[in-house]
Amino acid sequence: MEATVRWTGSSGMSFLAETGSGHAVLMDGAPDGGGRNLAPRPMEMVLLGTGGCSAYDVVLILRKGKQDIRGCDVKLTAERADTEPKVFTKINFHFVVRGRQLKPNLVERAIKLSHEKYCSASIMLAKTAEMTHSFEIIEDLDLPSEHQAAG
């Protein structure tokens, strides 16, 4: 895996990050640190990446378990140390999983597998942060299930 982060050279603290897979994202600092609040902060990107990594796992595990999953949101709430280095000290993942007749034990299992085995980002951050998880399931009654639509 490769990435390049380039300071935009402006008078502020904006950086253009380019991934090895060919994608780009802008990052900026807080105004009190010389930034202009034009883009996410680097540590926000770490939190976003962790949420994406875990949500990806949960969806994949539930699909492999033949669950009719229609949506997965994860809200992350984090606290950081007061002094440098300001590492994450607490992170809560609250999953809102939407689907048809999802089994709570399988949703809970998918979240647990993500955080204990598959999500490299959350496993890495668990070295400094207390990780907590919660979830809710929303029954999706609007559309026919994939199995009915295919049949």
UniProtKB/TrEMBL annotation:
PANTHER family: PROTEIN YHFA. It comes from Undibacterium pigrum. This is Putative redox protein. InterPro entries: KH_dom-like_a/b (IPR015946), OsmC/Ohr_fam (IPR003718), OsmC/Ohrsf (IPR036102). It holds the Pfam family OsmC.
